[in-house]
Design goal:
Number of domains: 2
Subcellular location: Cell membrane; Membrane
Pfam families: BPD_transp_1
Family: Belongs to the binding-protein-dependent transport system permease family.
Main location: membrane
InterPro entries: MetI-like (IPR000515), MetI-like_sf (IPR035906)
Number of strands: 0
Distance between the termini: 12 Å
Strand content: under 5%
Structural class: mainly alpha
Radius of gyration: 25 Å
CATH superfamily of the largest domain: MetI-like
Largest sheet: none
Helix content: over 70%
Order of helices and strands: HHHHHHHHHHHHHHH
Amino acid sequence: MKFYLRRIGFYAFTLWAAISLNFLLPRLMPGNPADIMIAKMQRAGGEVSETTIRNIRMLLGGEDIPLWQQYFQYWGQMFRGDLGISVTDFPKPVSELIAEALPWTLILVGTATLISFILGVGLGAWAGWKRGTWVDHLIPATTVLQSIPYFWLALVLVFVFAVTLGWFPIFGGYDVFSFPYGPEASWAFFTDAVAHAILPAVTIVVSSVGGWLFGMRNMMVSTLAEDYVLTAEAKGLHPRRVMTTYAARNAAIPSISGFSITLGFVVAGSIVMEQVFTYPGVGKLMFQAVTMNDYALMQGLFLVITIAVLGANFFMDLVYGFVDPRARQNV
């Protein structure tokens, strides 16, 4: 029980610190969202009345409100589920923008991460079992692919398969001309969205599968030298059973731990990939929030990412404490 209480206390403090930094860091950047909105309105329609300026500052926050007061207001609004109004897409609430972008990121990045994990762990286990053979040549090939910059690989895929061959759409999450009213529950929209997601998903899989493969291969080689594996081989068990039940099952534990933490970062999306493909996910939304100094949107996105990452770590701590009693004693 003490182990779980310590873990809960640690993550509660970490969450408080992360949320406090989430509030403070955007405000250390030059400018503020109220001034940006006022400047945009002045460029669009000339002069803006003092009443309008005052209302905008009250809505978006301005220099008239002390920082400590903004801090307590932020906590109060957060507990009410009010993440503020976005400057990027005024006057939409931040929660609505995040709710629109999050499913795109979860489906695309989550699926691509799962595929890369399965491929990497499966091929890594095979490469470790067949160490010293031609299968080991997969390691340097995937390592090279992993070292290729995200944006460069994405641009190459777009040029070859979208521009030159015309097999896939060039950008976007769906065809806005075929579906002018936005996403809809139909087979036509589903197939169109899948076609738009293939190249971004391939970019993520190709860039990340090498890390899983390399780590699993090394763990497999180390596990094969353990006494229980040698004992299983000496008993005359079938090689496939030794590989799957005795070697790969134990060698995959560190990879599963890393995968669970990686899932926490899935909600952050892939900023570079989503920018290249103009994909309507969280990464693209975050880029827009930073470039527009949209405090409320940045804070909302960072809050969602922080909770997801801390939640994944907390879950794994509880699982390790349940599976391995030594973890409860050493903390």
